[in-house]
Write a structure and sequence with these properties.
113 residues, alpha/beta, 5-stranded mixed β-sheet, 38% helix, 16% strand, Udp-n-acetylmuramoylalanyl-d-glutamate--2,6- Diaminopimelate Ligase, Chain: A, domain 1
Length: 113
């Protein structure tokens, strides 16, 4: 499944303008503790988090994640979105809760790591 298809499933806006929305999403993950995600992140992951600062992009880039999903319409600052574009990390924004996002992705066949 592509990042674009994930965005459609969760009704998300794609905040990044240049990052590849055709990247494959291999699995999903939800966590807000960056050190934990650093230890458990993987390539091709769709990561849902309420964190919106620059370190989120650093962690996602470290693992070559496919996208970061920000739930509940939480706003990510423009400079962070720009950095995500530079790093090739798609950022999605959804009005759904993290719980609902995970449920929809699981129902669509995206497994957990």
């Amino acid at each position: 499944m592509t990042v674009k298809e994930v965005a459609d499933i969760i009704g998300a806006s794609i905040l990044t303008k240049q990052a590849d929305t055709e990247k494959q999403v291999k699995e999903g993950y939800t966590c807000d503790l960056l050190s934990w995600v650093m230890a458990h992140g993987r390539e091709g992951m769709a990561w849902t988090t309420v964190q919106t600062h620059m370190n989120v992009i650093a962690v996602a880039s470290l693992h070559d994640m496919s996208c970061v999903i920000i739930p509940e319409g939480i706003r990510m600052e423009d400079d962070v979105v720009e950095k995500a574009d530079e790093e090739g990390i798609c950022v999605l924004s959804s009005s759904l809760t993290a719980f609902d996002i995970c449920g929809r992705l699981a129902a669509a066949g995206i497994g957990a790591c």
